[in-house]
Amino acid sequence: MIRLGVNIDHIATLRQARLEGFPDPALLAEEAIAGGADGIVCHLREDRRHVQDDDVIRLRKLPTRLDLEMAATSEMLKIALKIKPDMVTLVPEKRQEITTEGGLNAANQLKKLKLYVAKLQRAGIIVSLFVDPESKQIAAAAKVGAKFIEIHTGEYARGGSLVKVKQIVDKAVKLGLRVNAGHGLDYDNVKPIAAIPGVEELNIGFSIIARAVIVGLRQAVKEMKGAMEK
Ligand code: PXP
């Protein structure tokens, strides 16, 4: 059955808006797990605009899978090797962006990524590359030795082609890659992506946290699991 990774960044966004000690992403992650989350995802950004280093340390102690999204920098490598999340998802990062805008351009940094991925994998961390649904990017992900890709579904979520995502999943699986997907998924658009054979996990944040304001996080996660599996 397809898994749901709940991205808790925006719990931290709310906390940082007032620089308070609450709401606490690590505490609320337990609510997400109680609602049926199969893992927790967080993005430690270079500018620390939401998730902080201490959040990641505390999230790691929870009895669930942790997927750390990060840029492929030397600072983040040190942190990942210390914290040892179950998975690292490498993402591109621009300071001015509101959220991760596009996938990683793996094709134009093969040498750098090959070394970077190897360092993480030697430490027992599974590496996933967040890429746009483009053949050259998945080919590059396979070349640099990543075990997983996460397909950027932002374009699909804005009314783009489902077929394009399906075809890329198929190609990726044929190349021996394992496939996750995420970005922009919500209660109305998630089902067709969840139904694609070969997609193992969806990573969803904003829509779940926004729904949680109304119904609470446990219920919001439960509803998303329902929307995925209906
Ligand atoms: N996957 C990746 C790699 C992301 O960067 C994000 C956004 O932080 C998500 C999934 C979740 O996207 P959304 O918040 O739109 O559900």
Task: Provide an overview of this structure.
This protein has 230 residues and is α/β, with parallel strands linked by helices. The protein has one domain (3-229): Aldolase class I (TIM Barrel, Alpha-Beta Barrel). The chain is built from eleven helices and eight strands. The protein has helices at 9-18, 25-34, 53-60, 74-83, 110-122, 135-143, 154-157, 162-174, 190-194, 206-215, 217-229; strands at 3-7, 39-43, 65-70, 87-90, 126-131, 148-152, 178-182, 199-204. The longest helix has 13 residues, at 110-122. The protein is globular and about 40 Å long. Bound molecules: pyridoxine-5'-phosphate. Residues 7, 9, 43, 69, 89, 91, 99-100, 130, 150, 182-185, 203-207 line the site of pyridoxine-5'-phosphate (PXP). Pyridoxine-5'-phosphate (PXP) binds at residues 7, 9, 43, 69, 89, 91, 99-100, 130, 150, 182-185, 203-207.
What's the shape? Answer: globular
CATH class: Alpha Beta
Structural class: alpha/beta
Q: What is the helix/strand order?
A: EHHEHEHEHEHEHHEHEHH
CATH architecture: Alpha-Beta Barrel
**Termini gap:** 12 Å
Please identify which CATH superfamily we are dealing with. Aldolase class I
CATH topology, anyone? TIM Barrel
Count of all domains? 1
Q: What's the total count of β strands?
A: 8
Strand order of the largest sheet: 1-2-3-4-5-6-7-8
Largest sheet: 8 strands, parallel, barrel
Mean pLDDT: 96
Unreliable residue stretches: none
Tell me the radius of gyration: 16 Å
Helix proportion:
40-55%
Percentage beta strand: 15-25%
Task: Name the ligand types.
Answer: pyridoxine-5'-phosphate
Q: Helix tally?
A: 11
